[in-house]
Amino acid sequence: MPRPILIGISGFGGSGKSTLAKALGGEINAPVIGIDSFAKHQNHEQGYEFWDIIDFKRLQTEIIEPFLANKNNIQYHNQDWKEDDRGEKRSLKHDGILIIEGIGLFRPELMQYFSCTIWIDCPIEEATRRGKNRNRETHGDLYAEYWDGIWKENDLQCFETYAPKDKANFLIKHHEAGKWKIQTAFIFHGTEGYPEENWFPWLKQELEKEGTKVIVPQFPTPKNQTPEKWLKVFEKYKEYYTPETVIFGHSLGGTFLLRLLEKYPTEIKGAFLIASPIGIPPIKNIKTDQSFLEDNFNFELIKKRARNFAVFHSDNDHLVGLANGEELAKKLGVKLQLVKGAGHFNAKAGYLKFPKILKLWHTINT
């Protein structure tokens, strides 16, 4: 997804918006702006609706528009709640990603600006209870009547009129807000491969639409390609190798994926291996691939390093014989995904898209 990326997080008051925003901001190194900074100077007890006590226009002109214009070091006024007036000027610095969180955020005049929207799915009664408990710890019962009164009324007005839950790209259960982790995906090419070939750009685009961070490394190939040199490239992205990671390995990229699973103890979410050689002839590029194949695979260890496996192979692959896919599926304890007439699942075989693998990705993410 091209930058700048503006992420919006909303929900009822007390639902966990700030908690999620903080967790997500830490994951993707993005600053967080809370709309409380844009409250208007007026009576907070009465006389407003649809959360228009928040100056959404100022949020738009001071933060959103400069950010989307690629401006950095953005200056804005932060609301001083003690004085009930605009407070000090603050500076917003970013690296092309910004998170805005708050109540009433998903309104018609702002929705057009967001690259991604997240709604915290929490019933209004539960959110109110959580909010009152939180405030009781910091302010006693000072705001209790607001939670049950005008704040709740404003939340329901926005929910019933703007339908934010239906329009959000993602729903996050309120009890998972603090545990939420961004999902990452890697796509590994094979011998003589590169990130822009075959179905890789299509899959990258489809996954990014759903909020997944996708990395497609360029490995040195075919001259002097070795597992060690490929591993050196991968080390640059090691921070994204987490329990929420899914890796797609095409051809020798799948073989390298097996070596990666042997090396790293992290149990990732999924490993998809497509037309991958494991040493059974015929393998057309056996000479250049040999260093990846010469040692036996520790499949008992590999099986412990991913929660989901899938093996794809074709019945007419002229580069990597079908026996590789059959044996690999057997060793991993999964059913072979046999696709007739798919060749080597490359552009030459017509594979600029790969709907079957996207469907399987959705299966492990439901």
Number of structural units classed as domains: 2
What is the N-to-C succession of helices and strands? EHEHEEEHEHHHHEEHEHEHEHHEHEH
- The CATH superfamily of the largest domain is identified as Alpha/Beta hydrolase fold, catalytic domain
Overall average residue pLDDT: 90
Taken as a percent bin, the fraction of beta residues is: 15-25%
The level-1 CATH class of the largest domain: Alpha Beta
Which helices and strands appear, and what pairs or packs with what?
Blueprint: E1 5-10, H1 17-28, E2 32-34, H2 56-68, E3 74-80, E4 85-92, E5 97-101, H3 108-111, E6 116-121, H4 124-139, H5 144-148, H6 150-162, H7 164-167, E7 170-173, E8 184-188, H8 200-209, E9 213-215, H9 227-234, E10 245-250, H10 252-263, E11 268-274, H11 286-293, H12 299-302, E12 306-314, H13 322-332, E13 336-339, H14 355-364
